[in-house]
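Q: Given only this backbone (313 positions), what sequence would you predict?
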């Protein structure tokens, strides 16, 4: 079991023009703590009880995050841009070294008090969905955090948006997983694909690149769909096409039997993963990650959560 300790930092400034209410309340957005609680429970469920996140410290900051170029919104400039839906500052990206300093995260990480940083903010806060820091950090749906090269432990910083929902939080996790698993399996070839008669359409090759086999979908591998990726369900024809009713043959359910694949496939439609609901699709997809003990013939771990959350690579 993994029990990562989280430092949660909520950027939620008080808004004087709304009686001093926090930004999330003033604009009628979601409760950050409820979002985090539901996300933690979803991750526990999709990891088959293996990942138990714990928020060990929570900071709620009465500031707008500093941007890379030194700009910082005020109540007036942010609300004006939000109401107009234009005029947001560019470049949008927040200054990550300052974000780390504002929460004293690196010191807490090196003192073995925390493992991961979650940033919770508002639209155009400038957060990456995920990014990584530390001496052996890699691209993680965002660039390596500058100035962290001397930090011994690598770590992930998640960027969440309390104007959105838990489904979008799971999407951030899904893209984190894509980056990490692509890196982990990069030295292994994908089995050659020659159409629906290829035997790896039925029983994946455990000695080859399982990640590439897991992410197959009908558009890229006609007749050999597996689980797809974060944006493409097994039958999707474009990004975010999670509500497509087109039936396709897929072995997605057989991934729940890993590593003892049966070769079973069946016809699937969007009804299998929530009829277009973002959160339902992402839970369906993440739940099919291999999650048992031991190692595959390729030498890779059988539990992909050790890579995605445990950073054991």
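A: Predicted residues:
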């Amino acid at each position: 079991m993994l029990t990562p300790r989280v430092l949660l930092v909520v950027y939620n400034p008080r808004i004087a023009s709304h009686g001093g209410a926090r930004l999330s309340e003033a604009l009628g957005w979601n409760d950050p703590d409820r979002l985090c609680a539901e996300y933690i429970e979803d991750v526990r469920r999709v990891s088959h009880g293996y990942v138990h996140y714990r928020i060990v410290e929570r900071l709620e900051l009465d500031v707008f995050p500093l941007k890379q170029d030194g700009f910082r919104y005020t109540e007036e400039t942010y609300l004006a841009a939000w109401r107009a839906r234009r005029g947001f500052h560019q470049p949008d990206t927040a200054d990550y070294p300052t974000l780390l300093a504002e929460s004293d995260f690196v010191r807490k990480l090196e003192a073995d008090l925390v493992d991961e940083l979650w940033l919770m903010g508002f639209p155009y806060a400038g957060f990456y969905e995920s990014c990584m820091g530390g001496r052996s950090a890699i691209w993680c749906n965002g660039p390596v955090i500058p100035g962290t090269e001397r930090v011994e432990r690598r770590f992930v910083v998640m960027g969440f948006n309390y104007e959105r929902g838990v489904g979008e939080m799971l999407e951030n996790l899904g893209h984190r997983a894509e980056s990490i698993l692509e890196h982990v399996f990069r030295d292994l070839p994908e089995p050659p694909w020659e159409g629906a008669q290829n035997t790896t359409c039925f029983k994946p090759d455990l000695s080859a690149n399982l990640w590439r086999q897991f992410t197959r979908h009908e558009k890229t591998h006609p007749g050999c769909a597996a689980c797809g990726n974060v944006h493409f369900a097994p039958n999707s024809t474009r990004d975010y096409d999670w509500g497509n009713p087109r039936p396709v043959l897929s072995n997605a359910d057989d991934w729940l039997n890993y590593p003892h694949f049966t070769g079973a496939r069946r016809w699937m439609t969007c009804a299998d993963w929530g009829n277009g609901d973002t959160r339902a699709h992402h839970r369906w997809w993440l739940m099919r990650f291999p999650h048992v003990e031991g190692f595959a013939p390729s030498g890779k771990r059988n539990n992909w959560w050790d890579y995605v959350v445990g950073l054991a690579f």
